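Board notes (copied after class):
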Amino acid sequence: MSERTTLTGMVLKSAPSGEYDRRIVLLTRERGKVTAFVRGARRPKSSLQAATGLFAFGSFEAYEGKSAWTIVKAEIREHFLDIAKDYDLTVYGSYFLEAAEYFSAEGDEASDQLNLLYVTLRALLKGQMDLPLIRRIYELRTLYYNGTYPEVFSCIQCGKKENLERFDFYSHGLFCAECGKDRKGIRLEKASVYALQYILSAPLEKLYSFRVNEKVFGQIDQMIDRIFQSYVDRPFNSAAFLS
């Protein structure tokens, strides 16, 4: 048996395994996506029962096997139980868990992705931002951590940082007014360009602290959705229920 390791993470998936066990998928700071078994977690008096719930965030003491980990102890710091009390929050929260699993890899350090997921769920519960905007922010920032984000800070043709206004999906970036005058794509408001730049560069603790008007949201909603879908080769189950 390998030495025990403490993993900091969140439960992305949880399913019964055998008569009394559970199989969970964690997003961990130290080892990225981890599949683990929790022996006896389905027994009524199991001390590990709470550690297998979706959204459970904390420290998991485990040892690594040939194909999966085994959790032997857990200290849950946040259960996010209030998410399950609201239908829309449940759907959006489930979507974020699916996206986190899709874009995470086994064995890779994932501090940024885990922190993003945590602050996103906190933003859901805070209730100060429209849920569709939270979704688009999460998606674009996820692409950033995945290394596949669009260029929105300078013109992809001349390098200028001023007068950026047209986003070209084929080129995966913004053109300035001069370089983009004959290009197809979306002509963006200045506020839309700023919003995209903010989403990609803001500290996580301030990521969900801005607002946009309806026109700006319409632009970044269309743009981020199309970009995000280009990196996803299958639909997420929860996406069909998003408002």
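Comment from the instructor: The first strand starts at residue 5 and ends at 17. The mean pLDDT is 94.
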